[in-house]
Amino acid sequence: MLADQLDYIIGVDPHRDSHSLAVVQIVSGAVVFESTIEANSDGYAQALKLADAHGCGRRAFAVEGTGSFGAGLTRFLTGRGEWVLEVGRLRRERRSGGKTDALDAVRAARSALTARASPGAMAAAARAVTTTEPPTD
């Protein structure tokens, strides 16, 4: 099970100019840290530094749209040996105040661990995005 292989999952809601990140601790489900980075190489490096500072240990990045606005970040992360999972487009709340980029980043992280993201589907997505194996300790 994916949750047994990780300590943290970093959810990413990517956009053209910026990406929202949320570091979620697996055991408690608590959001440890949230931030927004620029969608460029400096921002990608900052994302990795933030992950090192707030999500050290076994981790994966759950990126919504690895083939679109999340493609640059995905290439950057996989090029540095990070485990990246693709998260399908999330269902958005339509009520006022029900959607924020920070909340979408948290939802991306948590959706990678839910029944909607079956272990087989997540393993297939991981192979499609990166050839690195999940971290082992």
General description of the model:
The chain is α/β, with parallel strands linked by helices and 137 residues long. It is built from five helices and five strands, in the order H-E-E-E-H-E-H-E-H-H. Strand 4, helix 3 (71-79) and strand 5 form a beta-alpha-beta unit. It is globular.
Based on the model shown, name its key terms:
36% helix; 5 helices; 137 residues; alpha/beta; five-stranded mixed sheet; 5 strands
SSE blueprint:
Layout lengths: L1 H4 L2 E7 L3 E8 L5 E8 L2 H14 L4 E6 L6 H9 L4 E4 L13 H11 L7 H11 L8
Parallel strand pairs: 1-4, 4-5
Antiparallel strand pairs: 1-2, 2-3
Helix pairs in contact: 2-3
In short:
The chain is α/β, with parallel strands linked by helices and about 140 residues long.
Give helix and strand order, one letter per element, not per position: HEEEHEHEHH
Shape: globular
Distance between the termini: 15 Å
Q: What's the main sheet like? A: 5 strands, mixed
Percentage of residues assigned to helices:
25-40%
Mean pLDDT figure: 82
Rounded radius of gyration (Å): 13 Å
Task: Identify low-pLDDT runs.
Answer: 115-122, 124-132
Strand order of the largest sheet: 3-2-1-4-5
Task: Classify the secondary structure makeup into a structural class.
Answer: alpha/beta
For the secondary structure, the number of strands is 5
**What's the assembly state of these chains?**
single chain
The number of helical segments is 5
Strand content: 15-25%
